[in-house]
Amino acid sequence: MLIESRQGANISEEELLELDEFVSPLIKQGQSVNHIFANNPDRLNISEKSVYRYVAGGLLKADNLDMPRVVRFKPRKSKPVEHKIDSGCRSGRNYLDFKKFAEDNDIHIVEMDTVKGGVSGKVLLTLTFKSCDFMLAFLRDRNTSQTVIDRFDTLVEILGEELFKKMFPVILTDNGSEFSNPKALEFDTAGNRRTYIFYCDPHASYQKPSVELNHEFIRKILPKGVSMNNLTQDDINLMMSHINSYSRKKWNNRSPIEMFNYTYGKGAAEKLGQKLIQPNEIQLKPSLLKK
Asked: Are 159 and 265 in contact (CB under 8 A)?
């Protein structure tokens, strides 16, 4: 359809990764986009304006803070533009593909989503293990694809490649622009596969029910519209420890953290910043994070 031809950035995942590896280090060295283009005409086949848009959209490791002249301009009041990397990134990764893959492979499934705070600022990346309702949440400064990639890289550093592959073999998510660079999530910088990414159908959040239901616990502590800008990852870990320690009737009144440690070994949750909270000490109210 004509409207689909206007969606997303006019660049493939592979081209974006190559551009990022070349341009971002130079920008971080203090070079202007004009200087980079003037001295590397054979390396770049897009416009300077496109690079500025990709930086502003969070598609590159460099950001506006690395370009002082850009951040001096007062931003216009407008709805933020969601930059999707490749409109074809969901090809072979749709919900039907996911169902077939799940049928052919007996593996654990992780559901991924975003929880927003105020109008702008920090957001959460949430990952829920469907087999036990154990949920992780990671604070991000912006809701961009690069911040999601950064969290994945951090998880690999914490867990190691083998344990990461065991815990996150398949990830099901929605169609948000922050998840529109699947290859950068599926493969490390050396090209080794670390997971498989699949997408729900548009406007079909019911296809990932575990993460959606778990968000209700987060909203008891962080109601919609409440800013997360004054929170730290330690605050989020505390919140998730209380949520993951809460007994669930569906698991015979066991808590998700108990089920998770049973599956992946004692201490697995602790590696991810989670600790067991005693039943009578659990708080699911905004007062938990009052400072």
From this structure: no
- pTM above threshold 0.90: no
Q: Do 245 and 134 form a contact (C-beta atoms < 8 A)? A: no
Number of domains in the chain: 2
Residue 187 belongs to domain with CATH number: 3.30.420.10
Helix axis angle, 48-56 relative to 13-28, nearest 10°?
90
Q: Same structural domain for residues 39 and 108?
A: no
Token pair 């006019």 is at which residue? 10
Rounded to whole angstroms, the Cα distance separating 96 from 67 reads 43
CA pair distance 214, 237, nearest whole angstrom = 15
Q: Is residue 257 part of a domain?
A: yes
Distance CA 112, CA 208 (A): 8
Task: For residue 63, give its domain range.
Answer: 12-72
Contact at 8 Å (CB) between 129 and 115? no
> Taking a C-beta distance cutoff of 8 angstroms, is the pair 218, 106 a contact?
no
- In the DSSP assignment, the letter for residue 127 is E
Distances (CA, A) of 101 to 96, 97, 109, 110, 247: 9, 6, 11, 14, 31
From first to last of the 291 residues of the chain, give the pLDDT tens digit: 555 544 555 677 777 888 888 888 888 877 788 878 877 888 888 888 888 888 877 778 887 767 655 554 455 554 444 555 556 778 889 999 999 999 998 888 999 999 998 777 899 999 999 999 999 999 999 999 999 999 999 999 999 999 999 999 999 999 888 998 899 999 988 889 999 999 999 889 899 999 999 999 999 999 998 999 999 999 999 999 999 999 999 999 999 999 999 999 888 899 999 999 999 999 999 999 986
Query: Residue 114 in 3-state DSSP?
Result: strand
